[in-house]
Amino acid sequence: MALRWRRTHLGSEADRATFRTLHTASLASAGLREGLTAASATSSVRHLRTLLGTPAVALTDTAQILAWDGTTEQHAPYAAGLAVATAESGMTQVANHDEFDCRRPHCEIRQAVISPLVVEGHTVGTLQAFTDAATAGLARACDEVAQWVSTQLELAELEASRTRLMEAEVRALRAQISPHFIYNSLGAIASFVRTDPDRARELLLEFADFTRYSFRRHGEFTTLAEELKSIERYLLLEQARFGDRLSVTLRIAPEVLPVAIPFLCLQPLVENAVRHGLAEKGDGHISIDATNAGQECVIAVEDNGAGEDPERVRRALAGDSDLDSTGLGNVDVRLRSTFGDDYGLIVETAPGAGTKVIVRVPKFAPGVHA
Amino acid sequence: MNTAPSIVAVVVVAIATVAIGTWGLRFSRTTSDFFVASRTVRPALNASAIGGEYLSAASFLGIAGLVLTFGADMLWYPVGWTAGYLVLLVLVAAPLRRSGAYTLPDFAEARLGTPLVRSVCSLLVVAIGWLYLVPQFQGAGLTLDAALGAPGWLGSAIVPAVVLVNVLTGGMRSVTFVQAFQYWLKLTALLVPAVILLTVWIDDGATSPARVGADAAAWSLPVADGGGPGLYLTYSLIVATFLGTMGLPHVVVRFYTNPDGRAARRTTVVVLALLGVFYLLPPIYAALGRVYAGDASSDVLVLELPRLMVGGAAGDLLSALVTAGAFAAFLSTSSGLTIAVAGVLSQDAVGRSRLSGVAAFRVSAVIAAVVPCVVAIAAPDLGIARAVGLAFAVAASTFCPLLVLGIWWRGLTDIGAVTGLGVGFLGSSVGVAYAFAPVTSSGWIHALMAQPAAWSVPLAFATMVLVSRATRHRIAPEVNRFMVRLHTPEAVVLDRGDS
Lengths: 370, 499
Fold this sequence. Notes:
A: Beta-Lactamase; B: 499 residues
């Protein structure tokens, strides 16, 4: 019984060998997903040696050794030289012992197989297997493992670039105060300098505070109160320019002002609302509501503009950004990555019916504090 | 006895509560006049709200009855319920606010970083919330019985129904305004009749309550009689009430509204003052009750005293005012507790099912109110203040050690916290079980079982410390950074670990 159970559940000997190999590979991949560094190489190199079954394995970048696992460490200093040669050729090579002579008689290492690690067409390092005899089988295995490692490194690269992209977008948002906004605000302020110097001075100070907040360098999060303060300044400046054409209603529940939210996650929504509201001829009306809903805070930004085809908004949220709504997708992605997929943007809109963007934020999320 | 004024008063309070909750935001400020800074909740307003939420039926009705029946040693209830905020002020208020936690499970998760502690804390929040809700609903039954002659179960069902309607229709959206309104309503409802009754008493010759009745000397003694066990009971009560306040789920969530740690402290100071003023009043009713209403049933003394002393239409009006205050007390505390329990349920239990956020919260609110409502109708009446005292004992034996050690000791580990919470809960549950069980005993066994706080709180502290010491390797890796954030004033510029 017990024997049959094991057979049926763990498979044949060949199956189990496959499982073992896959398990070893998954162990190695954990380290490699962080990119090719000394730390990641050290944590994954012994699993790679298990995969290859050779006495020693080395991981290098294109110029120096990163990690060594196995016996005969005296060969390690030669790994860098072998790496340079292979990196130049870009092909799997076999080196004989005289190329990395340890000057030890009867050294059990006779040959080394060196395979390049290629990420996006560039050789970034090598995988070196040291053995007593380099068979064709070992050369093939080393080549395959090197390709697998390359794939893992490419994934790591992808992950890193995604993070960089997100950071760059936040930076872009910070620097995003459009030249038009600056030009128009200063123009509007200038028009008050003679007629109402006090108001001009106030507006200039608002402008200074607004830019200081937007160019802030530190902190991924801010409080709803801070973000709303900045939005107020923005709206004051826009109202100075548009006068009675732009009216604003704020209904903010005081209970939710301390909620922590991603920096500049409401500002783009309000800018869109102003643009939509004033796009049509006639008066623009914007309302911003923040309500207290138990464990959550619900923020809604609404305009009375022309509205939008829901399908286009859906595509904009999916990342296809032909829509005239700057940063909508970015805000959505940042909310999701901060609070989880349940907390994406909700956009209610239809042609001719205005637009309402709803943001839900939990009052507490681990690791999120302003 | 004319019940019409009382019925009107109850209906007006219910409508005013829903109306302020729903529209409080609208008439606070609207178009184009928007200054967020001026909108942050001021400590005075927030303190009124905390007072409104905190002053439950136990404070409004229970204390007067207890003091009337058992004497001055029962004054430790209001003293402890006020002094609890002193402990909260000194040890917990500002760091808790700076932690960013909204609920107690949030704090546990932020401090210890494991979901297990969070789940245990959620269970405890539900347990304490329900233990606290049951006497509120029972008190409502008593009140409507005394004021309107309605059957007891009706009041116990009406209050949860009004609370549910209010919570489900968004009537608690501007919760700060509602609860602040409730505090001032409750204060007025006790203060105005108290002043009138005192003048009546002075007109009647101002008989000292300590000279009335059989055991006058024992009545005015500040320690429970019965020698050692009596002393123990008094001290245990002090421990439970002093340390239990910080563990009440509906109190903790109100601290989130403060903009920073400093505001949290200021709020607590104002709460101390507001509660101090309020708690002067119930003993007045108790003392007058001893002179004028020797045989009144204890929990409805406050409601009946105006009629007994003044009588006629004036008595009915005063009675209506007090009834309105009592109803406000049930509504505010029950709403706060229902929301707190429903929030935890929706986040950690119902929310894990496929229901969306709003639907999950509604289902949770119904569960949070219906369960204690059924218990309130089915379970025996313990006396409001005593039953609430049990909820304080559980809170003091579980969340107090977690908060104090979590905030002031780096060595607390998740396993230490969980075992400590478990031990504290089991210890304090002895008191709950003993109160509901049909057994009675006397002497030391009775004292230890009836008021377990004096031994269960130290036991919970000791367990947390010892188990944490034994599991030192599980200290949360980020603890130092977290401690810096808890204890550094916001005005100080430093790296708080924000990326």
